[in-house]
Design a protein that fits this description.
424 residues, alpha/beta, Rossmann fold, Helicase, Ruva Protein, domain 3, Zinc Finger, Delta Prime, domain 3, 4 domains, two-stranded parallel ribbon, 7 strands, globular, Replication-associated recombination protein A, ATP binding, nucleotide-binding, DNA binding, ATP-binding
Length: 424
């Protein structure tokens, strides 16, 4: 039986890894470990299909170390013992331990000395937050790296590679994948490369060739093979971004029903990634200081939605959209930081006042750094008048409070009172 395309296309070297360039790109931490052959045990956490197993197999392929794969939930201590014996006989073994958050104490106690000695380089893979779900004894002996859903461009790169690879991929078959089909495949799988390659392979194997022996894969075929509809797409892919734009503008305009409608389109397209990112942007850009608690609740809802997955994810997402629509609105935080950045980019920085400079090193006192700083907690109400902005920016006001909610009105009153006290 032939192995699935996603399995066959796993990278054999670190350079072949698609995505996760913040970890495996030139000069980045895992790339450096591989080049120096100074591997440390690590935990990779993130959604399914984002490359955790691929990174592990690429590390093994690049270093030429033996590579073994076990599952913390289903494999036994005896399976770990076999890996340990192999490490004693042949040297370092890289062990990919899937679902590491389900590692029990017996297996953990067996693993710990192997990690200490370096005989086994553990690469734990999990979809759970390791800071919450993994025992501190394991965490303290590993480096923790988060992996992210792949971008549509990453998916396209991997799909095109699979279509052209004659040894492991589909390169020996004449396949014509239409641009709309490729765009949809790269966006509808939400950064899950495994799903994209599985859908591609099913489409190719289940579609008859034409008279020229070419297998033509159209958008409807890909829709059927990944079981999602291109509701947010058009021929050029522009409609996807139009829906996202309409989604944000509907929340900004406080129209609950329109916002739910546009999110419904994104849900039907299976686009949890776009919904999650856009809701966090909306919360802090459009609601912000008017209701910071709603911003925090949005982050919690998105975390719940990503753990649940569809269809249940629609419930916390809908609750959040309704709250954001009906919440008071304010973009004062965004406009404040943009105003500060505008000054900085225009060259209006100025020298930091001496009393604010670091005084924790030998010679700082001779330079007058930090010597006249007044520690606010030593004064009544934990505040004392002193200048914080550089001289050329003294008195500049970036934050301009809005009056749309009692929360920001309260912050605004405090802000204005402090400014008045500072300038007296």
């Amino acid at each position: 039986m032939q192995q699935p395309l996603a399995y066959r296309m796993r990278p054999t070297t670190i350079e072949e890894v698609v995505g996760q360039q913040q970890l495996v790109g030139e000069g980045k931490i895992i790339n450096r470990m591989v080049k120096a052959k100074m591997l440390s045990s690590m935990i990779l956490y993130g959604p399914p299909g984002t490359g955790k197993t691929s990174i592990a197999s690429a590390i093994a392929g690049s270093t030429k170390y033996a590579f073994r794969k076990l599952n913390a939930a289903t494999d036994s201590k005896k399976d770990l013992q076999i890996v340990a014996e192999e490490a004693k006989m042949s040297g370092t073994v890289i062990l990919l331990l899937d679902e590491i958050h389900r590692l029990d104490k017996v297996k953990q106690d067996f693993l710990l000395p192997l990690l200490e000695s370096g005989q086994v380089v553990l690469i734990g893979a999990t979809t759970e937050n390791p800071y919450i779900s993994i025992n501190p004894a394991i965490r303290s002996r590993t480096q923790i790296f988060e992996v992210h859903p792949l971008s549509p461009d990453d998916i396209k790169t991997a799909v095109n590679r699979a279509l052209s690879d004659k040894e492991r991929g589909l390169g020996n078959v004449k396949v014509n994948l239409s641009d709309p089909a490729l765009n949809f495949l790269s966006q509808s799988t939400n950064g899950d490369l495994r799903s994209a390659l599985n859908g591609l392979e099913l489409a190719v194997k289940s579609t008859s060739a034409d008279r020229e022996n070419v297998i033509n894969i159209s958008l409807p075929i890909i829709e059927e093979c990944v079981q999602r509809k291109a509701i947010t797409q058009d021929k050029d892919g522009d409609a996807h971004y139009d829906v996202i734009s309409a989604f944000q503008k509907s929340i900004r305009g406080s129209d609950v029903d329109a916002a739910l409608h546009y999110m419904g389109r994104l849900i039907e397209g299976g686009d949890l990634q776009s919904i999650s990112r856009r809701l966090m942007v909306i919360a802090y850009e459009d609601i912000g200081m008017a209701n910071l608690a709603a911003c925090s609740r949005t982050v919690e809802a998105i975390e719940a939605a990503n753990k649940l997955g569809f269809p249940e994810a629609r419930i916390p997402l809908a609750d959040t959209v309704i709250e954001l629509c009906l919440s008071p609105k304010s973009n004062s935080g965004m406009t404040a930081i943009d105003a500060a950045l505008s000054d900085i980019r225009s060259g209006l920085s100025g020298e930091i006042p001496n009393h604010l400079k670091d005084a924790h090193y030998s010679g700082a006192k001779k330079l007058g750094h930090g010597t006249t700083y007044k520690y606010p907690h030593d004064f009544p109400n934990d505040w004392i008048k002193q200048q914080y902005l550089p001289d050329k920016l003294a008195g500049t006001q970036y934050y301009k409070p809005k009056q749309t909610s009692r929360f920001e009105r309260a912050y605004g009153e405090r802000y204005q009172a402090l400014r008045a006290a500072q300038t007296k």
